[in-house]
Amino acid sequence: MNENGFRDFLNDLEDAGQLKHIKKPVDCRQLSSLGDQVNEATIFENIIDYPGWRVATALVSTRKRLAIAMGCPENRVAFEFESKSTRPIKPISVKSAPCQEIVMEGDNVDLTTIPLPMMHLFDGGPYISGTFAISNDPEHGSNVGCYRLMYRTPNETGIDLVSPSDMRFYYQRALDKGEPLPIAIAVGVHPLDMLAASYKAPIDIDELALAGGLRGQALEMVKCKSLDLEVPADAEMILEGELLPIGWTADEGPFGEFSQISGDVKWNPVFRIKCITHRRDPIFYMLQMPWENDWLAAPVTEAAGLQALRIASVQPVDIRAPVGSCGYWSLIASIKKRPGEGKNAVAALLSVAEVKFVIVTDEDIDIYDPDELDWAIAFRVQANQDAIILEGARAKHIDPSVKSWLLGKGGLPTTAKLGIDATIPEGVPKILYRRIKNYGRDRFKLEDFE
Known about the structure:
This protein is an alpha+beta fold and 450 residues long. It is built from eleven helices and 23 strands.
């Protein structure tokens, strides 16, 4: 069995003093509120009315814990992700797996036997927030993504499939034929697997091999009990079923989005579950919104930005997807600039997924210091020359400013994007940006006069 599974990560957190155990009885309706208050990753050991189940949450709600998952310093997470993503390792198949120790099929399928939490005040129902969703297309092969599920009935959920994605594309192809799309949902996988699943990879890239590259070893996969799909053997729980061929017709939401906003009701497909399998002593993973989602989004966005810069022949120094924009909508980068590359870098970063705001600086600017960024924008930017606006670019529904409610069922929104080239302008001597340095600072020490 792999040594980089979900439970191995829990052990890593324990060893780092980052895992808390709560043994007092907890109701499912209390889980999210308590998870929002903890400082450490937490396992609730005693869930009322769900004997044998535990619930883990806040596993990657800080950059520090994400760095533990990646096995690197906090400021190298994006670079480590980028490096490992270039060395994919194909998954391997196994005959048996812990995720299938308990099997519920047919009429025995019952989501109410799982401790599904009520997460936010205005949510449309209990949610499964941390998923690893696997689908397959006859032409394009397997795909993995992360899509939340809202409880509807004991064997049905809603699924958030409004944004552009490969699985949405697969579903549309099946829908055009009047056919359901078989999918399998794994819950309780290593955070590196979820990073691979959320990476905006080209459709011909195997996210399972990417996850293997991030782990440094092949994922072990086992065949589903009711579908011709394979799932991670070391997962905690698997939901097997199909997206019904009804299109975007069922209400789903509201939900507390990773945008830190309580979202609106959406029209989405329905996921009908044929089989549930899980470990004998399962741990349900409640991905705590918004911070776990935001910190998982940041290195994926940053790594995509690094790749975009390199493709544009721009040498990056550092990059940051601020958590204030949810690790998703903004990118700030410093570069080793050659003439014209400030604008090239802005254009490259604006091409990343739904990133809508970009700042590019020279390497002398600390992009983690907001005062440094303000200084660069104040003295290196002319608005009519260094601000770039792109209209009609791809957007995401949960950004209220795109007014997605005007689009109707299944409509895809667009947005305007803004980039600021805050590098030293061409033609301006660098000496004009020489910083103040006090006379004798290197020779005169305050402690000598105290």
